[in-house]
Amino acid sequence: MELQHLGWEQRGHVVTWTLNRPDARNAYSDEMVASIIRAADLAEADDSVRCVVLTGAGRSFSAGGDLKAMQSRSGMFAGDQSELRHRYAHGIQEIPRRLCRFEKPLIAAVNGAAIGAGLDLACMCDFRIAAKGARFGSTFVRLGLVPGDGGAFFLTRAVGYARAMDLILSGRIIDTIEAERIGLVQQVVEEGGLLDAAHAYAGQIAANAPVAVRLAKSAVFHAWQSSPEAALNLAATYQSIVQHTADHEEGVAALLEKRSANFGSAS
Q1: Rounded to whole angstroms, how far apart are CA atoms 135 and 123?
Q2: N or C: which end of the chain has fewer CB within 10 A?
Q3: What secondary structure, in 3-state letters, does 107-130 show?
Q4: What is the reported pTM?
């Protein structure tokens, strides 16, 4: 399937996905939803891809839902209550379901406004770098809506219960200063240096042992809501796997020999 409304560019071991509906402020379309899921499948199956950066074309990261489609009750917003529930469950909610299972690190490079479902998409990423001037808002209640794509779950993971509740119930929009203060973004850079900063960080991750990175990401994600015993059991399982990889042997040898490790794309 050819990707639609989503760009794909690979540089070394890092792939950049670009939400590409700039005239609609990169609001979701059915084609974009399908393309994000397809891109995750492609990136995960390709051993040359070790890290992914997600950004938006034009001046916005993503406006989330398409207001014109909402108003006309067309596309993903068409149908009665039963049909709408089905469309959410088997449409836009397939993105969080897929990204929760995505094994490789995913970095949001937030180049502009991340609003509604656009903010939720940024929160589905593992790490967020923002350009100065970007804005963030969980604005669903201002439209008489709730975060229907799982935003309540992901925003709470990103900033904690009370701060997520504040943003969701007030619907207010915050700037990068507040976003960095509350931990919504981990780094703020000048607008012109956003992708360079995201790629530099992605490159640091991609330089590490790829199997270990994938399993470490999984361990952190699942440990968040696990019991200590469940987290320890998962860590023991993953450790037994990575200690039998060539990358582990290379990492130990490189440290002992005081040189940079040269990890393979698969182990």
Answers
A1: 14
A2: N
A3: EEEECCEEECHHHHHHHCCCEEEE
A4: 0.92
CA 267, CA 265: separation in Å to the nearest integer? 7
Per-residue tokens: 125: 């990423």
The helix/strand/coil state of 69 is helix
As a whole number of angstroms, the distance between CA 218 and CA 211 comes to 11
User: What are the Cα distances from residue 93, in Å, to 50, 54, 106, 166, 229?
Assistant: 25, 18, 18, 23, 30
Mean predicted lDDT score pLDDT of the chain:
92
Tokens linked to 108: 């949001």
Q: Which of 28-42, 86-100, 204-218 has the lowest mean pLDDT?
A: 86-100
Instruction: Outline where 76-209 has alpha helix (H).
Output: 81-89, 94-100, 117-123, 151-159, 161-170, 176-181, 194-206
Helix (H) or strand (E) holding 61: strand 60-62
Q: What percent of the chain has pLDDT over 90?
A: 69
Q: How far is the CA of 186 from the CAs of 110, 131, 160, 201, 244, in angstroms?
A: 11, 11, 15, 11, 33
